[in-house]
Amino acid sequence: MTLPAGAARLALAFAAGAASVAAFGDWPLFPVPLATLAVLGWLWVRADSPRRAAWLGFAFGAGLFLAGVSWVYVSLHDFGGMPLPLAAFATAVFCLYLALFPAAVGYAQAWLATAPPVRLMLVIPALWTLAEWLRGWLFTGFPWLALGYSQLDGPLAGLAPLGGVFAVSFAGAAAAGALAMLATGPGRQRVPALAVLAALAIGGGALRAVEWTRLTAGR
After folding, report:
1. Labelling 79: which of 10, 101, 167, 172 has CA 20 to 30 A away?
2. 3 state SS of 42
3. How many CB atoms lie within 10 A of CB 179?
4. Distance between the two ends of the chain, CA-based, in angstroms?
5. What pLDDT sits at residue 2?
6. How far apart are CA 54 and CA 102, in angstroms?
7. What angle do the packed helices 6-20 and 50-68 form, to 10 degrees?
8. For residue 195, how many other CB atoms are within 10 A of its CB?
9. Structural contact between residues 120 and 177, judged by C-beta atoms closer than 8 angstroms
10. Residue 114: how many other CB atoms lie within 10 Å
11. Any residues with CB less than 8 A from the CB of 119 and at least 6 apart, and which?
């Protein structure tokens, strides 16, 4: 599969990030962030330096947060009375700050330089989950658009009672890595990728069937 040129890679990463927001609405589009994160993983493992991988992560994050956190502008301008240029500038700066977290993931996964299957299905999911956790509490925290929240309608939601949103985020990122391997990896690497996808789908679906709570009559 041919890798696009530098500017086109950044544009693809930005578009993938923006498209991810579709799953956080009212429609059951939970596969979308898995596909878009798979695109980012494919770009990451083919980046020729940690710096380029960081820029790809930044582009993805910029698309994700500019598309998904635009309501901050409404809060600042429409309800807070902030002048339009200042509200737009503040919103853009805030979104670009948030994009530093996927940028850091991109740099770290490239710096670790593990084999693609391990990187896509273990290292990147772990780093992505860690970045979401850090984003959720650093400077009072902003956990908006965590990957796990996009999976409420899918089988991976079954992991939520066991490990909360971060367990779902890790599983979602691992599924995205498996999708990337399944779509672009050599034949021998597609078998473990398929096994990971099957295990997550079947295991998550089975956990969703568990009745974790039970209504009891009041005393």
Report:
1. 101
2. helix
3. 23
4. 64
5. 54
6. 8
7. 40
8. 11
9. yes
10. 14
11. 44, 45, 109, 112, 177
